[in-house]
Design goal:
The chain is built from 7 helices and 29 strands. The chain is α+β, with helices and mostly antiparallel strands and about 475 residues long. The protein starts with a helix and ends in a 7-residue tail after the last strand.
Length: about 475
């Protein structure tokens, strides 16, 4: 090593300052404890020790680099879950270093309401937006494409992956009554079920070839809501006939009936303990039943009939809406199933048709709650789980009033470079997409294909299919555009 240093110094072409820096770099490498530790670790027989040591060093530095990226993400106000979801999206793995700076929530350049405001209303006339959208789109009866021409600044991508569609995947039209509620199976991209006002519950598959699996009949009046168990083996349904029924899907049989004294309007399984079944009814009650025995565990009373509900992901809270537009937070004991009322948020004096919880949102940088009312009020709340599920209104959207109990839903696939998308049905037989981060031109796309008012909407777990149902019983499954679109 000393001879090599002398040879370098004696060379006429070598710069003394450059040689000094090179020597310092070599000394730093040999003195690096990580390098020495990786090289000195024992290696298997019949293997190159230099190769094994270098490989260990590279893996160590790769893990350290990932840790630094996660620290950068936390500095932007996000947790590890959001970071993991971000890097798992296709196309972000190879551009992680760039994305952590150019696509992070802190530098995305999105419009966000001021955190100092308790609420911010985005007043939009849905019919004028519809005219603008209709003038800028060419939509046929069988397909639809994303359009954004009404906005002042056009996006970089040709299509928006969160709300662009390439047509219909399949259609189910055997039902002759209004399909009031529609859902995909828990963590499923294939199983689809929908309930109708004739008391039937239909379970079908949307994989090739799409087909109906089971027709569940037993309710004598409208099916108001239903929910899958985590393994998608059972469905619990509520109805205006004052009963809750539990169905075995593979057998196509009703295995339990729970009788009540009032119409049963909404129902959910506990997300952690599926032995707890929560039901909201027309007698202002939220009840928890034992799924195995059908016995009542506990109940609490609110101010009006309970029309919509959802759990948070931990199962600690039930968020429910009533017929007077109030939204409640109910604390749940996940071990005993007991209930205690925590908070109430009064927003509108109209029936709440949709309550949906999500664990993360860029707009609030935390868990959020979506509510939709029959007067066309779409509200977006931030949820403080540390304060017993306290709700704070972050923004709202005023749409045209609905004559029917039309539902709305989060769009599950949300790029960090884009906005907060909500999909909802409409009286004009179209499915509309709204971006809550836009102060103007909030409607970004619509799907046309139904011939009657669209009542229910639902996304599959794979986020590539959207199902919608209408007043005459037609169910359309829409196929979303691929995400690998060239810029």
């Amino acid at each position: 090593m000393a001879d090599q240093k002398m040879d370098k110094c004696s060379s006429e072409d070598d710069d003394p300052e450059k040689v000094q820096k090179e020597e310092k770099r070599e000394d730093d490498v040999t003195a690096d404890p990580e390098f020495v530790g990786c090289m000195l670790q024992p290696c298997p027989a019949n293997s190159d020790p230099n190769y094994v040591g270098i490989r260990r060093l590279l893996l160590f530095r790769k893990a350290k680099s990932g840790l630094l990226h996660r620290k950068d993400w936390r500095c932007n106000g996000k947790g590890y879950v959001a970071y993991r979801n971000f890097i798992n999206r296709r196309g972000n793995q190879m551009n992680l270093r760039v994305a952590s700076y150019t696509s992070s929530p802190g530098t995305s350049g999105q419009w966000v309401p001021s955190p100092g405001l308790a609420s911010l209303a985005l007043e939009v006339d849905s019919w004028s937006v519809s005219k603008d959208t209709r003038a800028s789109q060419t939509l046929s009866h069988t397909n639809s494409v994303g359009s954004n021409t009404s906005d002042t600044d056009r996006p970089r991508r040709k299509t928006e992956p969160a709300y662009s569609f390439v047509g219909m995947h399949c259609i189910f039209d055997q039902c002759r009554a209004m399909v009031s509620v529609i859902k995909f199976g828990h963590m499923s991209s294939d199983i689809l079920a929908y309930g109708a006002t004739d008391g039937t519950l239909t379970v079908c598959t949307v994989s090739e070839p799409p087909s109906i699996l089971k027709q569940l009949s037993g309710h004598s009046k409208d099916v108001t809501d239903f929910d899958f168990t985590m393994n998608n083996q059972y469905i619990a349904s509520s109805s205006l006939d004052k009963t809750v029924r539990v169905w075995d899907i593979p057998k196509g049989l009703c295995i339990r009936v729970i009788y009540g004294v009032a119409p049963q309007l909404c129902i959910r399984f506990h997300p952690v303990n599926n032995n707890f079944l929560s039901v909201g009814n027309g007698n202002r009650e939220i009840s928890v039943f034992n799924f195995s025995t059908g016995r009542l565990i506990d109940k609490t009373v609110v101010d009006s009939k309970v029309t919509a509900m959802d759990y948070d992901n931990t199962g600690r809270f039930i968020f429910c809406g009533d017929a007077q537009g109030c939204i409640y937070t109910i604390t749940v004991n996940p071990h005993q199933g007991t209930l205690s009322r925590s908070h109430r948020a009064s927003k509108h004096k109209s029936e709440v048709t949709t309550i949906q919880y999500r664990t993360f949102s860029l707009l609030t940088r935390g868990p959020v709650l979506l509510s939709f009312s029959r007067d066309g009020s779409l509200s977006f709340f931030s949820v403080s789980l540390e304060l017993q599920g306290y709700l704070t209104l972050r923004c709202s959207l005023k749409l045209s009033p609905r004559l029917h109990s039309i539902r709305a839903s989060f769009c599950p696939l949300l790029s960090l470079e884009k906005g907060e998308f909500i999909v909802a049905g409409s009286e004009d037989a179209s499915v509309y997409f709204y971006d809550l981060t836009r102060p103007k031109h909030t409607c970004v796309n619509k799907l046309q294909g139904h011939g009657d008012p669209v009542i229910g909407v639902a996304w599959n777990h794979g986020e590539n299919l959207l199902a919608s149902s209408d007043y005459t019983g037609t169910v359309i499954v829409w196929k979303r555009a691929k995400t690998n679109v060239k810029k």
